[in-house]
């Protein structure tokens, strides 16, 4: 069976699109309805165009900026959280133990794994 005619999902790992990120693209997803599969019969140029489109969308949706401490490239939305890794500031504390963290999602993960018998945290 030649390239471009797969009938099962094909995973392609495309690295460094526009030098921005590593992404995984699922081609040939379910779509035939009633359990059928829609085969991918596109071209590699179509994949490249789709990845450029995704890269452009990501660039517009979350502009990146450099951390003034370490130079790491982070999204503007996550810059403050990233800075906390340098300052050691821990804003979020577990109500059931002495665990503290600077990232709310880490507190949720901690609470779910260490205190599964306690009610879910509401933040």
Automatic annotation (TrEMBL):
It comes from the Eukaryota. InterPro entries: Znf_C2H2_sf, Znf_C2H2_type. GO terms for molecular function: DNA-binding transcription activator activity, RNA polymerase II-specific; RNA polymerase II cis-regulatory region sequence-specific DNA binding; zinc ion binding. GO terms for cellular component: nucleus. The chain crosses the membrane at residues 12-29. Gene3D superfamilies: Classic Zinc Finger. Residues 92-120 form the C2H2-type domain. The keyword Metal-binding applies. Keywords: Membrane, Metal-binding, Nucleus, Repeat, Transmembrane, Transmembrane helix, Zinc, Zinc-finger. Pfam families: zf-C2H2. This is C2H2-type domain-containing protein. It comes from Petrolisthes manimaculis.
């Amino acid at each position: 069976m030649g390239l471009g005619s797969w009938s099962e999902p094909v995973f392609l790992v495309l690295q460094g699109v526009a030098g921005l990120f590593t992404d995984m693209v699922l081609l040939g997803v379910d779509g035939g309805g009633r359990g059928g599969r829609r085969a991918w019969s596109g071209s590699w140029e179509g994949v490249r165009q789709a990845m450029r489109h995704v890269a452009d969308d990501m660039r517009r949706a979350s502009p990146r900026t450099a951390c003034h401490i370490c130079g790491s490239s982070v999204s503007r939305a996550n810059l403050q959280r990233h800075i906390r890794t340098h300052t050691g500031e821990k804003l979020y504390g577990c109500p059931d133990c002495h665990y503290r963290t600077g990232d709310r999602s880490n507190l949720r993960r901690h609470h779910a794994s260490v205190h599964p018998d306690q009610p879910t945290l509401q933040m």
